[in-house]
Amino acid sequence: MTPRQRTVLSAAGLAGVAALFVSVFLRMPAVGSAVHVYRDLAVPAALRQVTPNVVSSVNFDLRALDTLGEETIVAAAVIGALSLLSTGNRPRPQRRRGYVLPPVKLGGYLMLPVALVLGMDIVLHGHLTPGGGFQGGVVLATGWHLLYIAGSPAALAKLRPIDWCEYAEAAGTGLYVVAGVLGLVAGGVFLRNFLPLGAFGSLLSSGLVPVLSILVGVEVAAGLVVLLARFLAQGLDE
């Protein structure tokens, strides 16, 4: 394809996207209007499914299939990044460790357990309060790497089971699909919320929503741990 042809094709695509945006903006409700169709559908559905956090109800119930696609994108992104950053059998040069200020080191050690507990809390209570598997998984993965900021990459390497994280990432995605198949068998719809809903505001409530949130949390946390490990190794090699 010549540069002129690429330019024409890109211009046609941009024109189509621009037309879609203009049509959407022209049909938007006026500022301050009480019309909100999605809200009027999502909030009652979340209440029926005993899920106080409407966002989690949308992610893991109303649009659970879309979330499966997003989870798969995360896994594919990790695999792609690892492939690009692979060093093969190239020997790693030995680098001198940089100096870390004592307050930074102390803060890293003190905040590590706090970050891990906070991440687990966000994942486990994602159906009740703001949060969920994606947010909690990121907190867990980044919190774990506070050891690196504290100047202890050796301790991080010992406490960071990369092999198990790779298995956990695959298991989180695979079990999400298994949960969808169970919903298909139990209720005739893939990813149907077939578990008992429980009492409103209870930890064991909302049916399948917290289960899917936990699976996503496992996949995101494990995937980001593996990804950050490769990024840090790449930085140490340079």
UniProtKB/TrEMBL annotation:
Where would you find this protein in the cell?
Cell membrane
User: Which top-level group of life is the source organism from?
Assistant: Bacteria
Membrane topology of the entry:
Multi-pass membrane protein
- Keywords carried by this UniProt record: Cell membrane, Membrane, Transmembrane, Transmembrane helix
GO annotations of cellular component type: plasma membrane
Report the transmembrane regions from the record: 72-88, 109-128, 134-156, 168-191, 211-233
Predominant subcellular localization, coarse grouping: membrane
InterPro entries xrefs: CPA3_antiporter_subunitB, MnhB
Domain Na+/H+ antiporter MnhB subunit-related protein: residue ranges: 109-225
What does the similarity note say? Belongs to the CPA3 antiporters (TC 2.A.63) subunit B family.
Annotated protein name in UniProt: Sodium:proton antiporter
- Lineage of the species this protein comes from: Bacteria, Bacillati, Actinomycetota, Actinomycetes, Pseudonocardiales
